[in-house]
Specification:
With 364 residues, the chain is of the alpha+beta class. Helices cover 34% and strands 24% of the residues. The protein contains ten helices and 18 strands. The strands form five sheets. Strands 1-11-12-13-16-10-9-4 form an eight-stranded mixed β-sheet. Strands 5-7-6 form a three-stranded antiparallel β-sheet. A three-stranded mixed β-sheet has the order 8-14-15. Strand 12 and strand 13 form a beta hairpin.
Length: 364
């Protein structure tokens, strides 16, 4: 233009404008395609461990070992809510009026027992070298995407309307999220944490009669354990984690067994999982009270949880396991410690958390 070549200058100006418009369109397309690639990648499941048994669903899980002798007493074991009601310990009707189905009021001795079990589980894990933590009970969508699959999120999580926040379904979510986008020196590993939190779950679908009462509910409390470690250490920590749960239940006189989850019962991000099941004298079978999982680097890859080593940075492995989750755990506790006269024995390990009480006496 300065040289008087107006037509040539205007043509160049139009060309630059067209290129800018094209670049803007391509940038939008790039953002859309990147999001689509990420969405597809997030649906790809983890590669399961070679030791995992192949099976279609949880009916083909494999029993590994039993701990304690399962006993069926010669007197009737009532349904767990009926046991609680003899202590004036539960009010489902009031909870239904206040919050709807899937909620409960625990009262008196049963409420105290509930809190005592959590306090005992907390100290049990602290004594095993874990750092105690009370985490956030809500997490952002970026953390949700990092810790679980889309299918799990839809089935479990409650979304806070109008905000980028979800109520946690387990404290594992916020505990693993604690390490999002971090680089930890090798010498600080492993990081072993035990956490308390309430948990909130949709629990979609129809459930059988054995899952009424306080077995499958929308709100409960849990003591959890998580580990962030080097990849070569995760198999060792996996065995340590589920053993912690077994040991805790045995101190409360509850027989348990471990069950190896087959391929068809593994969530997308898990490479290996063991369920801990407690004995139910009333049903004369075991039922799940905890689940231990090794997710290898799946969560670490999504959340950028890295380790700083001598030869550069690499992805950590993450593991999680239930320490104890009342009120479901209370079902096993009440059934296994119920006496013929309707009283409930308090094992020695739990008595300090119950003010020295050795036995609960029914009020009805």
């Amino acid at each position: 233009m300065a040289q008087g070549k107006k037509e040539e200058g205007m043509a160049l100006r139009e060309k630059v404008k067209a290129q800018a418009d094209e670049l803007e369109e391509l940038s939008k397309k790039e953002t859309e395609l990147t999001a689509e690639v990420t969405r597809i990648m997030m649906t790809i499941p983890n590669i399961i461990d070679d030791s995992v048994p192949i099976g279609k669903d949880d009916s083909e899980n494999v029993e590994v070992q039993r701990y304690g002798e399962p006993v069926v007493p010669d007197y009737e074991i009532p349904y767990h809510t009926d046991i609680m009601e003899t202590f004036d310990g539960i009010d489902l009707d009031a909870a239904g009026r206040v919050a709807g189905n899937g909620f409960y009021y625990l009262m008196g001795d049963i409420a105290r027992l509930h809190s005592a079990v959590l306090a005992y589980a907390r100290d049990f894990m602290i004594n095993r070298g874990f750092t105690y933590c009370v985490p956030p009970f809500m997490i952002r969508s970026a953390v949700v995407d990092g810790v679980m699959s889309f299918a799990e999120m839809d089935a479990m999580m409650y979304k806070i309307e109008g905000e980028d926040l979800y109520l946690i379904g387990t404290s594992e979510h916020s505990m693993i999220g604690k390490f999002i986008d971090t680089i930890t020196p090798e010498e600080k590993l492993p990081m072993t944490l035990t956490s308390y939190s309430p948990c909130f779950r949709k629990e979609k679908g129809a459930h059988g009669i054995e899952e009424r009462g306080v077995y499958r509910i929308h709100q409960f409390e849990k003591q959890e354990m998580i580990v962030v470690c080097k990849p070569e250490d995760s198999p060792i920590w996996f065995d340590k984690l589920w053993q912690n749960t077994v040991d805790l239940f045995r101190t409360l006189d509850i027989p348990v067994r471990t069950l190896e989850c087959c391929s068809g019962d593994l969530a997308d991000l898990k490479v290996k999982s063991v369920d801990v099941e407690a004995w139910s004298p009333r049903q004369q079978k075991y039922f799940e009270v905890g689940s231990c999982s090794n997710l290898s680097d799946a969560q670490a890859r999504r959340l950028k949880i890295r380790i700083k080593g001598e030869n550069g940075n690499y992805l950590a492995h993450t593991l999680n396991n239930t320490v104890v989750a009342p009120p479901r755990m209370l079902i096993a506790f009440l059934e296994n410690n119920l006496q013929a006269d309707g009283s409930v024995n308090i094992p020695k390990a739990l008595q300090p958390y119950m003010g020295g009480t050795e036995k609960l006496i029914p009020k009805k």
